[in-house]
Design goal:
Length: 201
């Protein structure tokens, strides 16, 4: 008798798979709890290298159906997603993604649809990366500072500089200016100073 399994995935701790579980139930698909595999792992990790997904595949038998809420739950890489669907199709196991309707992803039409959508999604991700890099390069060319702003203003940094040159300890300067020892150390290192008196255990 054919069985139905569900694979739920989130990328980071703090996210929950409960919404995915509810979406499957709302679609009228009944999946017993012991046939639901949920895990927290990045979609960039190949499907068969994910501990939870690999265990789920080991439980699948010919005629079973695997349900996901979205195709990107299987993965973000078009090549990996297609390889996973092909492997499941050879078992043979049907694969259903709620966002694509009733189509079986392991069928010829399903593989074609999956391939097109994955290629488009990957292309969009690569465009975002390219735009981000271009923005960073443009900001650098314009002399803009990247990253977090300095912990201290220029006047305070100058005063700490002067204190270091006088031989005041890192800890004393950190207490005086209500900052961390690491911040004072970065100022010292940025100045290229080698001041034995500024070292403190």
């Amino acid at each position: 008798m054919a069985r139905t399994f569900a694979y739920l995935r989130v990328s980071t701790v703090g996210q929950t798979t409960e919404n995915q579980k509810q979406q499957i139930a709302a679609a009228g698909i009944e999946v017993e709890d012991f046939r639901i595999m949920a895990e927290t792992i990045s979609g960039s990790v190949e499907a068969m290298k994910r501990p939870g997904f690999a265990r789920l595949v080991d439980r699948l038998e010919a005629g079973d159906m695997l349900v996901v809420t979205k195709m990107d739950r299987l993965g973000r890489n078009a090549v990996d997603v297609m390889a996973t669907i092909e492997r499941l199709g050879e078992m043979p196991v049907r694969v259903k993604s709620l966002d694509l309707g009733d189509i079986d992803l392991t069928s010829a039409a399903g593989r074609m649809t999956t391939n097109i959508l994955n290629v488009v999604a990957q292309f969009e991700r690569e465009l975002i990366v390219e735009r981000t890099r271009a923005g960073i390069d443009r900001a650098k060319a314009e002399g803009k500072r990247l990253g977090r702003p300095p912990a201290l203003d220029a006047k305070t940094r100058a005063e700490i500089d002067a204190g270091l040159k006088k031989g005041e300890t890192i800890s004393a300067l950190a207490r005086q200016f209500k900052t961390s020892r690491q911040t004072v150390q970065r100022i010292r290192d940025g100045l290229g100073m080698v001041n034995p008196k500024a070292e403190e255990t």
